[in-house]
Automatic annotation (TrEMBL):
<dbReference type="InterPro" id="IPR027961">
    <property type="entry name" value="DUF4442"/>
</dbReference>
<dbReference type="Pfam" id="PF14539">
    <property type="entry name" value="DUF4442"/>
</dbReference>
<protein>
    <submittedName>
        <fullName>DUF4442 domain-containing protein</fullName>
    </submittedName>
</protein>
<dbReference type="InterPro" id="IPR029069">
    <property type="entry name" value="HotDog_dom_sf"/>
</dbReference>
Amino acid sequence: MTVGEMLVATVPMARTLNLEFLEATPDRAVVRLPDQADYHNHVGGPHAGAMFTLAESASGAIVIAAFGDQLSRAVPLAVSAEIGYRKLAMGEVTATATLGRPATDVVAELDAGSRPEFPVTVEIRRADGAVTGEMTVVWTLRPKS
């Protein structure tokens, strides 16, 4: 099962929004929100809440891709998220996530017995390539008891 298939199977909101997981590697995750009238805002583009979910889902995909081998001993959890809406989004939008710290550093902290935190940055782009939003999600790997 791919990271995208796993997230669609286990995260009901990803299914609800019909998110398309295009790429999920430890280096980058790309997720698309198709243009769907049911999730439009008052100006006919994707609702801010749908774009937030898109970006957070992309961040989760890279976390699973980068740290999936740690899931037997740690639970990934979002600690905080901040989003900025930059330009009007219309039509489909795509979120691209990247890790803000090397995965090896995060795992080394986990190995040392701490609860590491790390940022994931996400750009949301419309089909013409314009950046419509930027998000940073801070994640942690909470050690299992």
